[in-house]
Specification:
Layout lengths: L1 H22 L6 H8 L5 H33 L2 H29 L16 E7 L2 E12 L2 E7 L2 E12 L2 E7 L2 E12 L2 E7 L2 E12 L2 E6 L6 E2 L6 E7 L2 E12 L2 E7 L2 E12 L2 E7 L2 E12 L2 E7 L2 E12 L2 E7 L7 H13 L13 H14 L8 H7 L4
Antiparallel strand pairs: 1-19, 2-18, 3-17, 4-16, 5-15, 6-14, 7-13, 8-12, 9-11, 10-11
Helix pairs in contact: 1-2, 1-3, 1-4, 2-3
């Protein structure tokens, strides 16, 4: 669809150029130029388009010639013809430059009629390589720096002020006498002393008394080192018997009985007594002045103006600059010669995986598959119009 639209644009351009040539009374071979510009990889596709272009161009030539002749014979004088010839010469030079530029952009030489460096078994077609752009981010001043004046209104405050209502004065007050109760201590019984007997103190002690002193005695023995009685033939041993003691408990006097003097304190009684605390007197009492509080509104700060600086406003703008123009180039493509339904099916699956809807994966190139392919090529910035090898590479499909 994009390729057909491109052919239509070139067709319209060539018709316009043909009309300008006719107006200058210049006859050119339009049909040959049209055929050279619309040549593609398959001649059967473009033959119908070339015939249509040639027919339209011939019709425009005949119409333009009739219009030019009528105009010359009816309106132009000799001086006007000279001026018109000069103008036509300038336009002819301009037209020549435009034609050269058009041939340069589309490739009008004999070498462009066939794809260069073609390989056997491969199909080629002229596809539209999109223009290349570079995007730069620029900081643009959207609004310059300025200032604004802000009027600050005056500030008021309410102040409370005292107003004298009654002058100060004085009065005499009689203060009666005051009394207080005091506690008075009265002696009831004088201090004395008495003698008290302190009993004797004893302690219990234990004593060890000898009951039987130690002594030595002979006892029968069994060993050969003891003494042998020659009369009886027995062995006798001399044994030491220890002394015997008895423990006796008894009380021992520690402190003998004595007497001591004990002091008996005096006895007192508390009696309450009414005593004059302060005598009666006359006191002058000052009567203070009386004031009333009144609210008064006073200026705290006068009105003033304030200059507020407004900074400049900047915006970040993405500027898109064309690096190269779009052009028609020979590209290797898939055609019936070098493709199979399996390859088409894998292309459809790859398009669906990339987020495009090619329709059913039936291995056939339908309108929905081509629409999805064109959308994919446009997004990726690839040459569009045919199934090019660079598109297969981008999709990750091998054939």
């Amino acid at each position: 669809m994009k390729l057909a639209a491109g052919r239509f644009i070139w067709l319209a351009l060539l018709i316009f150029l043909s009309w300008k040539i006719i107006m200058k009374n210049k006859i050119v071979l339009v049909s040959t130029s049209i055929m050279m510009l619309l040549v593609g990889g398959c001649s059967t596709v473009f033959k119908h388009d070339a015939d249509a272009v040639e027919s339209s161009a011939n019709k425009a030539v005949s119409t333009g010639q009739a219009t030019a002749e009528d105009h010359v014979h009816s309106a132009m004088s000799l001086k006007q013809l000279e001026a018109e010839n000069a103008r036509l010469a300038r336009e002819n030079a301009e037209l020549s430059r435009e034609s050269q530029a058009a041939r340069a952009s589309t490739g009008s030489g004999d070498g462009d009629l066939l794809p260069p460096n073609a390989k056997p078994g491969e199909c080629y077609a002229r596809v539209l390589t999109p223009a290349k752009y570079s995007t730069k981010t620029e900081r643009v001043e959207k609004k310059p720096a300025s200032f604004r004046l802000q009027v600050i209104p005056p500030k008021y405050t309410w102040v409370e002020e005292k107003v004298l209502v009654k002058e100060p004065g004085e009065k005499l007050n009689v203060v009666p006498a005051t009394y207080r109760w005091e506690d008075t201590k009265i002696l009831v019984k004088e201090a004395s002393e008495k003698i008290v007997t302190v009993p004797a103190k004893y302690k219990t002690v234990s004593e060890k008394i000898l009951v039987k002193p130690a002594y030595s005695t002979w006892k029968k023995g069994k060993g050969p080192i003891q003494k042998v009685d020659n009369a009886t033939g027995e062995i006798m041993c001399l044994v030491e018997v220890p002394a015997e003691y008895k423990t006796v408990v008894r009380e021992v006097l520690v402190t003998p009985p004595t007497t001591k003097k004990v002091q008996i304190p005096a006895e007192y009684k508390i009696v309450k007594k009414r005593v004059l605390a302060e005598p009666e007197k006359v006191v002058k009492v000052a009567i203070p002045a009386e004031y009333r509080t009144v609210k008064v509104k006073k200026v705290l700060e006068p009105a003033k103006e304030k200059r507020i600086d407004v900074p400049a406003v900047f915006a970040t703008v993405k500027k898109r600059t064309k690096v190269s123009d779009s052009s028609l180039e020979w590209k290797p493509i898939l055609c019936e010669t070098n493709t199979t339904p399996n390859v088409i099916r894998r292309i459809q699956q790859a398009l669906r995986k990339a987020g495009f809807n090619p329709g059913d994966s039936d291995g056939k190139i339908g309108s929905q598959t081509m629409s999805a392919l064109s959308a994919y090529q446009k997004r990726k910035g690839l040459a569009s119009g045919q199934i090019t090898m660079e598109t297969l590479k981008a999709l990750g499909v091998s054939y």
